[in-house]
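Lab meeting, item 3. Inverse folding demo.
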């Protein structure tokens, strides 16, 4: 019986999984493609640890979406498409995190700057920078950076996805950075 299953085409394994939810069918697909997905991730990330993490994340995603596969294309095409887009998304997130680090450095520099300004002046300057920024955005920044609340917890509180929270924080930091830059150029 097991040898018969091993010889089945990908699409048949998918159909069997969709009918029975038997994890054995998914495990066979996983075994067939884990190396290829890893190589795809490695070619995009140039980092073996990231490629391993991405590969596992991709298969978790594929596992959760197996019932949505409609066999309009080959399973391998669908899997590689998911893999490619996942890696691209993660690489974009990595670039955003680099921007976040830059914004964090900016905030640190503002607080450590030896301009002779007293605390009141710095607070006034920060208030000016935040004028016109929606209260919700300021609250997200305060939760994350003043209170140290995790992205996951903020997402729960506001009924958002973690990626939505990260994007909102990034946009608000970018606004503050732009305002800070123009404020100090005057």
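The presenter then showed the designed sequence:
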């Amino acid at each position: 019986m097991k040898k018969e299953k091993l010889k089945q085409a990908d699409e048949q394994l998918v159909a069997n999984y969709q009918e029975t939810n038997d994890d054995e069918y998914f495990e066979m697909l996983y075994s067939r493609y884990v190396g290829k997905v890893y190589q795809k991730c490695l070619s995009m990330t140039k980092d073996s640890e990231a490629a391993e993490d991405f590969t596992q994340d991709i298969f978790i995603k594929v596992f959760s979406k197996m019932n949505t596969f409609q066999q309009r294309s080959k399973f391998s095409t669908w899997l590689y498409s998911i893999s490619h887009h996942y890696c691209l998304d993660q690489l974009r997130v990595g670039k955003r995190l680099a921007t976040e680090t830059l914004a964090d450095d900016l905030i640190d520099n503002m607080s450590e700057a030896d301009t002779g300004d007293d605390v009141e002046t710095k607070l006034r300057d920060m208030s000016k920078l935040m004028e016109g920024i929606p209260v919700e955005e300021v609250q997200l920044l305060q939760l994350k950076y003043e209170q140290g609340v995790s992205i996951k917890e903020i997402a729960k509180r506001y009924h958002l996805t973690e990626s939505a929270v990260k994007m909102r924080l990034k946009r608000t930091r970018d606004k503050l950075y732009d305002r800070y830059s123009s404020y100090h150029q005057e």
